[in-house]
Amino acid sequence: MMKSMKLGLVCLITLLSFQLKAQDSISSSPKKYSIGITETPPFVEKSAQGVSGLSIESWEMVNQQLGWDYEYKEYESLADLLLAVEKGEVDFSVNPITVTDKRMENINFSQPYFISQTAIAQIKKSNAWAVVKNLWSWKFISALLILIGVIFIFGFLVWLFERKKNAKEFGGEGFSGVKEGFWWSAVTMTTVGYGDRSPRTTGGRIIALIWMFMAVIIISSLTASIASALTVESINNEISSVAELDRFNVVSVRSSSSQEFLNLYKIKHEEVKDGVSGIAYLLNHPDDLLIYDLPILNYEIEQQNLQDDIQVLEKTLKKDYFSYSFPKDSDLIDQVDPVLISAMKTMEWSRLMKNYN
Question: What is the pTM (predicted TM-score) of this model?
Fold first, then answer.
């Protein structure tokens, strides 16, 4: 009886020993990390050979020191990817995700690895159409009204002096005389000089002399204003504040920092899935504006050879910082950040950024 109990005890101890060794073997095996991505050229691009792009290459450079085993998990859209990171479906994402206050409430971010800007893209308009459109602008109409007003004032003053002593040329009393004065003033200002009307009185000639000199100054400034109104200008000069975007039909990428920016300022806008869809929308809606990340816009325009059709305005809306994203309170960020910062100081990193810029 005692022998059987000892034998059973030995078997139990042996079994427990094997289980502990198996557990130690499992726990000591390296973890395979899940990295969420969604196609966002030129940062994340898919091809027959796999995935590539600036974000992918930057992560591979960082992982040279970390030595982690990992796999990419693809998502259909940026909105799906952000939700996956927030819920912890992936360990982290290397996609170019902009750091914002709202996003920081639900996910954590690494050290920024790329500085971008939120830009405005529009369809290039033909010069002829822009000139015709500007003819009806308030800037042009107001300059024209001022010019007519000045011409009328000097024509009226000359008529006051000439209406009795030079009634033959200036029409005498009444509205017909005022019209003749206006005609003389316009002819004098433009230096056409028909000679069909000229002041005869001393007062009229003094007014005419003053008008001749003033007309040179006034017509030059007013002409500049009218020319400015007729000149084809980029919409870049029309947007001096974010609030002015509300005058246009705007589109942005769903769940992007650009859309978050528009929501912050309560700018009404349409939504598209990604940058490619945004470019397609813009081509079908030539009067609208596309608000999105500058490097992605430039890349898509170049890839589709649309440089002659679409322009990205020089004036940008805000500066953006792209970072890796992690689930809230993830301890991985403390391991990635020091290595990422170290990698960003290398010449290899500088060459990588130069190649993509």
Answer: 0.63
Looking at the fold, whether 205 and 273 belong to one and the same domain comes out as no
- CB-based contact 118:320 (threshold 8 Å): yes
Full domain range(s) for residue 312: 122-126+235-319
Beta strands 250-253 and 269-272 are parallel
* DSSP H helical ranges for the chain: 2-28, 54-66, 78-87, 101-104, 127-134, 138-162, 167-170, 175-189, 202-230, 257-264, 275-284, 294-303, 333-344, 347-356
The three-point CA angle 299-317-285 to 5° equals: 60
Q: Please say which residue of 185, 202, 230 terminates a domain.
A: 230
Beta bridge partners of 98: 322
pLDDT digits (tens, 9 = 90+) for 93-152: 999 999 999 999 999 999 999 999 999 999 987 555 555 666 666 777 887 888 888 889
In a domain, 163, yes or no: yes
Co-location of 339 and 288 in the same domain: no
